[in-house]
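Lecture notes, continued. The same structure-token format from the folding unit now serves as the input rather than the output. Read the line below as a description of shape only.
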């Protein structure tokens, strides 16, 4: 059963990150599971479930949340905001960068978790210039594939610049990203220079190691032990950052899958690894964003 599960995760990862062909996914899963019905059940157990319960209620009275629609970086923007309702001091700002499915309810929940941990949080929807994140995840992944990456980086830098000037903040802004968003945080660290005070990437494919010299922000990088695709890029990236004298902490969690932090995916989520990574993440951010 473990071998079947691991192979199913590999097939699903190839679908979500490479070919995006659902017919190929169904054919391969049916061959693996033995029937179309079993294949559909297997896919559902691996895929993130939009119906999964949030850890933090969107109406939690401890928080103030909002959704803004406007313009950022010269293009349409959408962002979800979360912050403690009654902070006792100025707080650091954190951008939460979404996965390749866009600004989903799960990413909004992560934003609320960070807000309860003591930050002001902005979760941009980088699909806003294309109309915003759709409910159909396959469509969202297709849209991510045609996204203007330079524009997304420009918008992220604009969010950082604005957050750094807010009187409610400490003037320091960090970023946390997951999967596609983890890759984005790495690239934002290259592009943003000293404007980014801290970057944390969860299982995000890394840039060319030659870019390491351009990084200013301290980085924390979380990798899944069974995620060979991402780790093949992460290991050279970490080595290059260290060789360039950059501040980097990298952790690999043995025996867990890509997206181990996403509790809306029954087969991928690993509670122990997620809790440890989260504790490291919040401590890292407080150390670099608090006054």
């Amino acid at each position: 059963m473990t071998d079947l599960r691991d192979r199913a995760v590999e097939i699903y990862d190839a679908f979500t990150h490479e070919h995006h062909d659902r017919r190929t996914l169904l054919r391969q899963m049916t061959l693996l599971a033995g029937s179309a019905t079993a294949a559909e059940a297997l896919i559902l157990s691996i895929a993130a479930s939009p119906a999964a319960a949030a850890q933090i209620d969107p109406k939690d009275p401890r928080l103030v949340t909002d959704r803004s629609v406007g313009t950022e970086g010269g293009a349409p923007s959408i962002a979800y905001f979360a912050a403690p309702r009654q902070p006792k001091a100025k707080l650091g700002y954190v951008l939460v960068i979404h996965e390749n499915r866009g600004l989903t309810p799960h990413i909004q929940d992560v934003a609320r978790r960070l807000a309860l941990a003591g930050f002001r949080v902005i979760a941009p929807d980088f699909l806003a210039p294309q109309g915003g994140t759709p409910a159909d995840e396959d469509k969202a992944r297709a849209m991510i594939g045609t996204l203007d990456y330079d524009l997304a980086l420009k918008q992220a830098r604009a969010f950082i610049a604005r957050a750094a000037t807010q009187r409610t903040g400490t003037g320091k802004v960090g970023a946390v990203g997951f999967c596609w968003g983890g890759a984005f945080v790495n690239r934002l660290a290259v592009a943003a220079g000293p404007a980014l005070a801290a970057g944390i990437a969860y299982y995000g494919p890394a840039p060319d190691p030659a870019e390491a010299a351009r990084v200013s922000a301290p980085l924390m990088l979380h990798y899944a032990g069974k995620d060979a695709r991402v780790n093949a890029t992460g290991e050279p990236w970490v080595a290059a950052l260290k060789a360039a004298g950059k501040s980097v902490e990298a952790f690999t969690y043995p025996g867990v899958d890509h997206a181990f932090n996403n509790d809306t995916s029954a087969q991928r989520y690993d509670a122990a690894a997620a809790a440890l990574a989260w504790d490291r993440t919040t401590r890292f951010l407080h150390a670099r964003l608090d006054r």
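Point for the exam: The two ends are 50 Å apart (CA to CA).
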